[in-house]
Amino acid sequence: MWPNTFSSRLKSWNTLREQAQTLPLESALISINQWWFNSPWQPYYLHWDDQPKWPDPWQLLSDNFYCYVARGLGIVYTISMLDRADMTPTTLILTEEGHNLVQVGKEKYILNWEPDSIVNTFQEVKIKQQYQQQKIA
Hints:
Layout: H1 6-22, H2 25-37, H3 57-63, H4 68-80, E1 90-95, E2 100-104, E3 109-111, E4 119-120, E5 127-132
Antiparallel strand pairs: 1-2, 1-5, 2-3, 3-4
């Protein structure tokens, strides 16, 4: 269940990050993906054309609106705050087909596709736009 208040979302997100820090890679990615798939879905909250104005992680959790782009951005923010070299690089991608995917580990894992699983693949996706992982201060 998704936390109702901002403070409970922050606490839950912190717990997620603490757990993901020590889990095996695939288990950590599945856990992060599942947590963000519990978020309340809202169509068209964020748009790729507005990328310079995208919210930071705390504002994203405060706003509490999650379209496919926002959920993917939340996944990227979560991974960016972990100290795990095995989760780099991480990129939010808009594919030519219109999917918003999170690619982790040099095209090895795809998140933000299915709620209960990650896709382990070496298939190349056709990138229309992308947002590179950045360290969050």
